[in-house]
Design a protein that fits this description.
TIM Barrel
Length: about 260
Amino acid sequence: MSDSRPIIAANWKMHKTPQEGYRFAQQLVTKALNLPGVRFILFPSATGLFHIQDALKDTAIELGGQNMHAAQEGAYTGETSAPMLTACGCRWVIIGHSERRHIFHETDAGIRAKIPAALDAGLNVILCIGERLEERRDGSTEDILRRQLQGDLAGMETFPADRLIIAYEPVWAIGTGVVATPKQAGEAHAQVRAILQELFPGLPGDDAKILYGGSVKSANAAQLIQIPGIDGFLIGGASLDVDEYVKIAEISQIETKVES
């Protein structure tokens, strides 16, 4: 039976030194003891992974990398491979974040190469998809989500629902303070689930986990986590403060009432 607890993932982006991340992890370990009804995943900068794994040792809190290269090794200055992530205690990796797509110009073909490389190395994947503001305004959200999913998952015969999670992150809501309305978020998550079932006909609708990301904070967490089809959050700015991050987790545990 798959784990049905909501996932509360923290993407720190380019924030926190290794020492700051270690202190955060230490505090979270204590605060998370009363929150068995959620799954915590931390995504620090690569420089902090080795230190933070020590703070998380013998806990249920999981660790992940924010990005990776598709190759196992090679002349790729500044890049990090999947084996390097697993050696630092990572169980997860984020692939296809909008900042990687739009700032660093990553393509669907490049993202598609990373996913099997991550899975083959033993990593679980959070694949990020989402539309820009102009795409939302012109009504092409579903087309963008379909294009990204088709491009990123092409060649996969089955969808490994136990190891691959989709994060819907409307680009216009990331770091802007603007959050999708319950109607917008619910519709997008339903579209993602329907597209996955089109691409993988044997996939039961509820098997795929889909997270929401985009200016999630404690003030809107209760409303968002109650939306059908939202299985947790990928949190940016609000995850940098351990108390705010834990508060979001507490709200999610209360609202979902999933037995650990």
